[in-house]
Amino acid sequence: MNFLRRLCACRRGSAAIEFAIVGVLFFGFSFTILEAAMVMDTQIALQTAVTEAARCGAIGGSQCATGVPAYVVARAESWLLADAIGTRDVTTSTTSGCHGAAGTALVVSVKHILWPLMSTSSPFGGVTLAAQSCYPLTS
Length: 139
What we know:
The chain starts with a helix and ends with a strand. Helices cover about 45% and strands about 25% of the residues. The protein is rod-shaped, with a radius of gyration of 25 Å. A three-stranded antiparallel β-sheet has the order 1-2-3, covered by helices on one side. It is an alpha+beta fold.
């Protein structure tokens, strides 16, 4: 009993114990915030690549000579990690109208890009990112 009283009264090492408890939470939240920022950055880059590819394919730009899916992959690789998406992930189609505009439009979609690219222990493990854009076709 005397040993238990002395153990409870001793304050040596309490700062290390408190840091261990608080530090785990602090670093966990910090890495979660960084991972969320990377997910949002990747989504923005993916949407930008798809939007540029839809415009390029609709106006018949020379950059799209190899095909719209290849252009999407090339543009995405300039912002994302290499081999993040492939041409198999990109689909193109035509539709009538785009954002209220009459006429035929080219629609470009990226079906998925699996996250995490940064780590396998991501709090967002298995998130699927997708992007779609349309652009009116020129006559």
